[in-house]
Amino acid sequence: MGEFQKLWPDGPLFTQADHFSLGTDSVLLADFTPVKGAKRGIDLGCGSGVIALLLLLRAEKLHMTGLELSGQSAQTARKNLAANALDGRSEIVCGDIRAARSLFRSGSFDLVVANPPYYPVGSGALPQDPARAAARGELSCTLDELCGAAAYLCRSGGRFCLVHKPERLSEALCCMSAQGLEPKRLRLVCAEVGRGPSLVLIEGRRGARPGLAIEPSLFLREADGAESAEVRRIYRKE
Predict the structure, then answer these.
(1) Which of 19, 83, 112, 166 could pair covalently with 160 via S-S, beta carbons 3.0-4.6 A apart?
(2) What is the pTM of this model?
(3) What pLDDT, on a 0 to 100 scale, did the predictor assign at position 49?
């Protein structure tokens, strides 16, 4: 674990667990996730806790739980929340997503979020470092297992928000629907204008009726290579 740094000028303090770097995908997911009315949320596979941290800063009445398999990452998440005086509204549980039914009661949360490993086992080479491999590939939890855990934890009418790769969009939507998490919002993320999407943001509602709203794409950079106005807003640069 390195030194604490501010995520942006006058922003929250944050440090990353060893062997990992903070990804844009987590920051974008935290911005995409609605928090109005949510009192209890959980981040499945919370890593160093950045999503929980950012959601807590947006909602003063929210309590966040982080569930993380890696003991080192779980400890880093606790330190990040404590460094920002958010430990009183949060807890980090070191445990397996696949064991969620033994760790929490059904329907315990209004809000479930996840930035999971993107690649199924056997889809390509993974890093040799075991921790990096687990972060990139579904070695510890498949997409279907993730959606099953989210459905169990989410109360009726609650939200599940997910960031994933566009090539697995159909699979993600099918997994969510099969578990009773009806996809309600979808937003594509593109590196720059004129390029295809590199990420997809999805919101599902537990027990909701079918009906998917597709929002305008989020572009990280303009055609001239400059950061987009929306990225500057998300990172508090303007």
Answers:
(1) 112
(2) 0.92
(3) 96
